[in-house]
Amino acid sequence: MHKFLIRSFVSSLVLLFTLTVAAVAKDVKAAFVYIGPTGDHGWTYQHDVGRKAVEAAGFKTTYVEGVPESADAERVLRQLANSGHDIIFTTSFGYMNPTNKVAKEFPNVKFEHATGYKREHPNVATYAARFYEGRTILGTIAGTMTKSNVIGYVASFPIPEVIRGINSFTLAAQKVNPNIKTKIVWAFTWYDPGKEAEAAKALIDQGADVIAQHTDSTAIVQMAEKAGVYAFGQASDMDKFAPKAVLTSVENNWGPYYVDRVKAVANGTWSQKDTWHGIGDGMVVISGLDSQMPSDLQAKVKKLQADLASGKVHSFTGPIYDQKGNLMVAEGKTADDGMLAGMMTYVKGVEGDIPK
Amino acid sequence: MIIDVNFVGLIIASIMASAVPLILASCGELITERSGVLNLGVEGMMIIGAISGFALMTVTGSLIIAVFGAMLAGVLISTIFAFLTQTLITNHVATGLALTIFGIGISAMIGKNFVGIPGKEFPVLFEGLKDTIPLLSPILFGHSIVFYFAFALPFITSYFLKKTKIGLIVRAVGDSPESASNQGINVRFVRYACILYGGAMCGLAGAYLSMIYTPQWIENMTGGRGWIALALVVFSTWNPIKILIGAMIFGGLTIIQFHMQAIGVRIPVQFLTALPYIVTIIVLVVISRDSRKIRLSTPSSLGKSFHKDN
After folding, report:
1. Phi–psi pair at A118, nearest 5 degrees
2. How far, in Å, are A206, A284, A286, B263 from residue A231 at the CA level?
């Protein structure tokens, strides 16, 4: 009897000890600040998928959704930092200044700001994805699949991220089909299904038979499905919304990066850095290719994907000219990250002006 | 850019499709306002209709249950408003605003499980006739039943208000609840009925968005259309036929500005985006020049609570 008691006492001690060690190693709390609702099935939704990956890796997470890019953001950040979070991800461009400001007050908390460039304190890191690599693939597909040679593009706001996407898409499409025209409609929203559908419909009525989008909802691919033209999914795999129209999607995959960074905090190896990952690092993912695409195109796309991943091919390889014919990137050169980050001019072949 | 008649037909058809939710919600709100009740909860009732329709469609698989369920959901949420403003005599404006905030919040909560699910295809009528008449075919054929109902509704509403006894009672209650009450009309009952009817139409407008126009659920998907519908009622000076015109202008300006962009017309996009609002202001200014006409058609007791015991 005594033996039994002692044995069970010892074993429970061992068990307790193991549990405690496990708990200590994983006792890192991560917080996420979102611009939109997690139910947008677009930008915020994908960040939340990333947060769930962190949770699945055994860490505690919190999130606050619908936080305006104003003084409210500071208040939310301060509260999160005060309530024992070790790392805070701020997932919209407009959180740049609030993040840096609050980071100064909490040197022991790590801050990670998405799509920004300011790292004013050693506890602020930045990260973004090279979505334009995905758009090189979409452009290649669009240029090949179009019969009317008119490609529609629903854009959101005239910022470098969107201009870079339009340019990368058009350059790739022109490479396979010099006769194409990219018609751009600015919806001036990231997220309004009705408006996005109307923009897509206008482009389709004007002869576009492939529609690309840089807004977040699935309304555009559904409109394409109804009208019998092709489209591409944005941010997440949208194939099930429009099985016939969607040729492929470019997915934002934040999970691996988030897990990495939270683990780094747990292990004490976190350090400030600027991350800009693309297809090669798996932050930008190309969904399955639709079987309507001819097999030689599929093979070409797969090769392009591999070459973009390995760095053999760069989306912006010279010679690249702007609309007026001025040389932007010389032959044999590629655009550097500084140029990409501040890109505010259309390349040759894009129609119209950038709204000011 | 070749402008042929079919292209014009396509544009007009797009404009009409975008006007449908505005017409439905406005015509519903018009009846509510004609009975003297100002319900600012249109946006909230629409979004509740949108999530209810989508959720019921996904769960039951039946489009009919979903459409009527969305209308019923609109009725239920407007019952809260009716109870507060008519039975508890709360302030119309504050209660209506609360209804909108409540609707947006609760729809997001219910909707959590319905994000990322594709909607079902909604059947359209007369699709076989789509290429028969130039210009008119895309306008007349190949739309959902809700589309045809929406374009009939302003005429039905107009007939109801002008030619039927119940319509007259609704107007009497809105213009002079005291006299109506003295005539033996149950003012509270009539107002309850008008509020609930408005809720049903807003629910249907929401369901049109989430089931037919852009078949999916995402948070806030009504995108302020409820507020535009409210403005349209004033814009129309409480005349259902003018709602039709107003809704076409509102829907049309967005679509025409997208077309102009795609054609390459070099007008600043921001100006084009602001156009619907500029036009509203101009129209309101033009209308309000004839103040007698406005006063004639504005329900005199609009937004005022009615205490029977006084």
Report:
1. -90, 125
2. 15, 18, 14, 20
User: pLDDT tens per residue, chain A (356 residues)?
Assistant: 455 555 555 555 555 554 444 444 458 999 999 988 887 778 898 999 999 999 999 999 999 998 988 889 999 999 999 999 999 999 998 899 999 999 999 999 999 999 888 999 999 999 999 999 999 999 999 999 999 999 999 999 888 889 999 999 999 999 999 999 899 999 988 888 899 999 999 999 999 999 999 998 889 999 999 999 999 999 888 898 999 999 999 999 999 999 999 999 999 999 999 999 999 999 999 998 999 999 999 999 999 999 999 999 999 998 999 999 999 999 989 999 989 988 999 998 888 888 87
> ipTM of the predicted structure?
0.84
Taking the CB of residue B271, how many other CB atoms lie within 10 A of it? Answer: 11
A199 and A270 both lie in a single domain: no
Cβ proximity of A227 and A239 under 8 Å: no
Contact B223 A193 (CB under 8 A): yes
**Within an 8 Å CB–CB cutoff, is residue B1 touching chain A?**
yes
Domain total of chain A: 2
Specify whether A215 is located in the same domain as A116. Answer: no
Please return the burial class of B65, using the count of CB atoms within 10 Å of its CB with bins 0-12, 13-18 and 19+. middle
Check A188 against B273: CB less than 8 A apart: yes
CATH number for the domain spanning A229: value is 3.40.50.2300
Nearest CA in chain A to B265: A352
Element (H, E) at A33: strand A29-33
Mark whether A325 and A198 lie in a shared domain. yes
Nearest to B213 among A191, A194, A355 (CB): A194
- For residues A97 and A170, membership in a common domain is answered with no
What are the two backbone dihedrals, phi and then psi, of residue A87, each rounded to the nearest 5 degrees?
A: -140, 135
B227: chain A residues, CB-CB within 8 Å: none
Same domain, A206 and A270: no
Together in a domain, A27 and A103: yes
According to DSSP, the β-strands at A320-321 and A327-329 are antiparallel
- Same-domain check for residues A334 and A217: yes
Identify whether A303 is part of a domain: no
Are residues A197 and A101 part of one domain?
Answer: no
- Nearest of B3, B32, B279 to residue B174 by alpha carbon: B32
- CATH architecture of the domain with range B5-297: Orthogonal Bundle (1.10)
Residues in A lying within 8 Å of B, measured between beta carbons? 36-41, 45, 152, 183-188, 191-199, 201-203, 205-206, 208, 217-219, 222-223, 236, 240-242, 351-353, 355-356
Q: Give the nearest partner residue to B262 out of A202, A222, A356, using CB atoms.
A: A202
Residues in chain B within 8 Å Cβ distance of A236 = 116
What is the extent of the structural domain holding A220? 131-252+316-341
| CA A20 from centroid of its chain's CA atoms | 37
Chosen from B11, B219, B273 to mutate, greatest number of chain A CBs within 10 A: B219
pTM of the model: 0.84
